[in-house]
Design brief:
single chain, alpha/beta, Rossmann fold, 2 domains, 6-stranded mixed beta sheet, 9 helices, binds guanosine-5'-triphosphate, binds magnesium ion
Length: 279
């Protein structure tokens, strides 16, 4: 199974971002804290034209805290500003606000010296469904842009005034044209950044079970009350049996089991889990 999702609207979105980056002063680069390295988009490599970048590890409420700390240190060691938070947590939004003001400060001061009373423009970017629009609404303290638990909600650009000093640009989530490392694509499927219609849910669920039973076996055991010995197929079958997903003739409803584990992982029901590792 080769995972690929790069529809026309993403090519268009990248072109729009390229056109708008000139007029932006800084970039808010949102990563899914459960897969921060996998959500680094190679299509962005030459896009930001040396603008300051603030990395935002979002969805920390569903990520492994010890891994999040390691990723924060990783960015710090590289001298790259980075904050970790959950867009749904009002208190943590204050941390992001501070970090944005800190990153914007040099530009704000330059504007002030020139007598310019204009806000610093921040382009918010990231893979689909990582929480860009939710972060913007939380920062602006109002529901200015559409959000939703499916990748590809935002389709065009939208400016949102956050304060007199900062304006945010919401952009559509973008993937890239070729996943050289399919592990990256798989993890983007796990966290919900690739839409389900383009991959085989059963195959991806088996890969998810594989990674979970290596890194977080207790997560499966606790949630589904099954042992994680045996093959991935056998574990999925046990989950189906435990949940009573049985069709006529005693056949297991493996498709339903596959959808369930993917869905429940994406909703954080299996616990705080991060797939990417620094070594
Ligand atoms: N648990 C949790 N859910 C979050 C967080 N941030 C966003 N979400 C949820 O994630 C889903 C996607 O959020 P959006 O803000 O629409 O994501 P997006 O990056 O704008 O997505 P696209 O526009 O499709 O690229 C929504 O259901 C949000 O409620 C978070 O920090 N924690
Ligand atoms: Mg959006």
């Amino acid at each position: 199974m080769k995972i690929h999702w790069f529809p026309g609207h993403m090519t268009k979105a990248l072109r729009m971002m390229q056109d708008n980056v000139k007029t932006c002063d800084l970039i808010g680069y949102v990563l899914d804290a459960r897969a921060p390295l996998s959500s680094l988009n190679p299509a962005f490599d030459n896009l930001f034209q040396h603008k300051p970048v603030l990395f935002i590890l979002n969805k920390c409420d569903m990520a492994d805290d010890s891994q999040t700390q390691q990723f924060l240190q990783y960015f710090k060691d590289k001298n790259l500003p980075c904050v970790a938070l959950s867009a749904l947590d009002g208190k943590q939004i204050a941390t992001l606000k501070n970090a944005l003001y800190q990153t914007a400060k040099p530009k704000l001061e330059r504007n002030k010296k020139k007598g310019l009373n204009i806000p610093v423009r921040v382009m918010i970017v990231g893979v689909p469904n990582c929480g860009k629009s939710t972060l913007i609404n939380s920062l602006a303290k109002r529901k200015s842009v559409a959000t939703g638990n499916t990748p590809g909600v935002t389709r065009g650009k939208q400016w949102v005034q956050m304060s007199n000093e900062l304006t945010l640009l919401d952009t559509p989530g973008t993937c890239w044209s070729n996943y050289e490392d399919q592990t990256v694509a798989q993890r983007l499927c796990f966290v919900g950044s690739i839409k389900r219609e383009v991959f085989d849910v059963y195959e991806v669920a088996l890969l998810l079970i594989d990674e979970l039973s290596i890194k977080y076996p207790k997560a499966i055991e606790t949630r589904y009350k099954v042992q994680t010995d045996g093959s991935n197929e056998e574990i999925l079958a046990k989950i189906c049996r435990a949940r009573g997903y049985v069709l006529r003739g005693d056949e297991l409803d493996l498709e339903r089991g596959a959808l369930t584990i993917l869905d429940e992982y994406q909703k954080g029901k299996l616990g705080k889990i991060t797939f990417d590792r620094l070594q």
